[in-house]
Structures are given as structure tokens and as C-alpha cells.
Amino acid sequence: MADQDALSSPRMANDYDRKAEEEYDWRGPEVAFGLSYAFVNPGESVLDIGIGTGLSSILFHKAGLHVYGMDVSPEMLEACRGKGFATDLKEHDLTVAPYPYHTASLDHAVCLGVLNFFGDLRPVFSEVARILRDDGVFAFVVGDRAPGEAAEFLVGPEHTESDSTVTMYRHGTEEVTGLLNDNDFALVRCLEFPVPMDRERTSVLRAKAYVARRKRRS
Ligand SMILES: C[S@@+](CC[C@H](N)C(=O)[O-])C[C@H]1O[C@@H](n2cnc3c(N)ncnc32)[C@H](O)[C@@H]1O
Asked: Which domains does the chain have, with CATH numbers?
């Protein structure tokens, strides 16, 4: 279980956008949107899981999609609400199923900068598969795990905005492929990119962005 205070303190919510863009060079939103662009259309909906301040779905909004957001942190949701682009924002813990959305009720989903805080991704994939309409896409980013590499790694206070050490998790291609197969997704795009973990760029996480299509229900 992730340390929620470390991930979403009021301090983090207030300064998140500036730090993500200027100090940490967080390019996940552009990578995920660029890989998804061919599969989304104006007027469709996208669910952003762990929406934070909204960086992960603002480009989808600019492309004409309706943004639905879910996050466990009231402070992050409040910061996102203040931007005024989300159609609906809900406070909910992504480890707890069911999520507060009807089956086959939304077109697409994104989850960026979030899955690295969790070891077990099965609730996320099964809930997204339930909520998405046929042929919708799920764009997500994970820290990649090379064969033989440990899944867990510790990130110290010097690399985060928290006062404590945070446990993070890598997820390898084999695990992700299994999650997609088990939950009726077909992989359509995958791209590796670096995620700096500190201002000085001394530590870099090898991340992978995936886009998968929800298979048609029979
Ligand atoms: C690093 S931020 C990423 C925010 C945004 N997706 C982005 O790309 O900028 C991680 C977000 O995940 C949220 N989060 C952490 N644990 C969560 C949980 N159990 N359920 C829902 N959201 C969670 C945090 O509150 C925070 O907003």
C-alpha cells in the first residue's frame, strides 16, 4: 500500500505543476497523449485514474474529450477542480473495487505517474476493463522492470516532496502483457522514455508508456 501522505500532501498539490514540468521534466502526459491520439475523438470521454492536478488529461481536454477524474487526495482534486476543465471529479482509492462508474460507461482511460506506487495492478486493470466501452483505449505508464531486476525500490526524501522514504514498484513487460491478456485488452502502442527522479537528474527511472485497446465484448 502506498503512503498516501507522501504522495499527495497539500504542499505537493500546491506546487505540483511547476515541479513536475520545470524541475522533474515529467513528459508522461505528452508521451501518453501522443501515443493515444490516433485512437481518440472529440466528444468522447476519458477517465483519468490518479488525476492529480490534471496534467495527465489536460491534453485530452484540449483535443475535445470530456475528462472524468478519480483521485484519493482531496487536495489534488481541489487543485484540479480549480482549473475548471474536468467534467466530473471523484474521491476514490484506486486499490478499492468497484470504482464509482457504471460498466461500459466511458470511452477511454489514462493512468500516469501512479502505477509505480503499487505492487498489485490487478484491481486497476479489471476495473478499467469493466468501465471502458468496446474499442476504448487505456494509456498508462509504469516503471519498467528488466528481467532479474527487483520489483521494489526505495525512493528517499531527497527524490520526493515528502519527508519520508517511499516504496515504489517496477512492472516488467511480461507482467503487463499478462494483465492485458487477462483483462481483454490488446496492446496497440508501447514506448520507453526516461523519468528523472530528482532535479539534478542523478537518478532516472526507465519508464514505459503503453496504450491498449479494450477488446469487444462478445
Ligand atoms: C505523481 S501524481 C500523478 C498525477 C497525474 N496523473 C500526473 O501525471 O501528473 C500521483 C497521483 O496519484 C494519486 N494517488 C496515489 N495513491 C492513490 C490511490 N490509492 N488512489 C487514487 N489515487 C491515488 C495521488 O493523490 C496523486 O494525485
From this structure: 4-214 (3.40.50.150)
